[in-house]
Amino acid sequence: MAEPDPKSPLLIKRYASRRLYNTETSDYVTLEDIAGFIRSGRQVKIVDLKSGDDLTRQYLLQIIAEHEGRGENVLPIDVLTDLVRSYTTQAQSVVPQFLAASFEMLREGQSKMMENLATFPNPMSSMPGFEALQRQQRLFLKAMAAGWGAAGSSGPEAEDDDAANPRRARKGEEDMDEIRKQLAELQKRISRL
């Protein structure tokens, strides 16, 4: 059997029983499996077996709703409110293009930042502690690229999330303390130069 082309969309068929069938591996998959395919960079197309209707949008929204429902808040309330408003206003025609362009710009920016960290010689690279700072930047960008999760939340919702998960809050505080410590150390070294 030929190896599937990772650039072509993975075809998932929905049966009348609502079970989702992966046509490449000939097995049933869950929404979490589909989310994993997407996270790994794969395009997915979900169609109804009987009617042939494209159900991809419906299932992607369901995956987002499940993540948001578990407290993995990426979309601030203001953004969700604006999205709801856009369905009843003239903005409906502009919002999809704006969102697509914004996410494309974010992806390109992350990609360029990662390239710059890895390829361009930096005059500060000979300074002691620079590698640690660079490592922290890579970890930050990797975390941002992995989900935008807590970094996208702000205000009371973010505080509620930290209260619900004190271990995550402590870890975040520890990470920030480490970054502050390393920045202070770097500033001392720069001032000595």
UniProtKB/TrEMBL annotation:
- GO BP term (any one): regulation of DNA-templated transcription
Annotated protein name in UniProt: Polyhydroxyalkanoate synthesis repressor PhaR
Q: Where is the PHB accumulation regulatory domain?
A: 75-114
Top-level taxon of the source organism: Bacteria
Matching InterPro entries? PHA_DNA-bd_N (IPR012909), PHA_reg_PhaR (IPR010134), PHB_accumulat (IPR007897)
Q: Where is this region: Disordered?
A: 151-178
Q: Which residue ranges does the record assign to the PHA accumulation regulator DNA-binding N-terminal domain?
A: 11-70
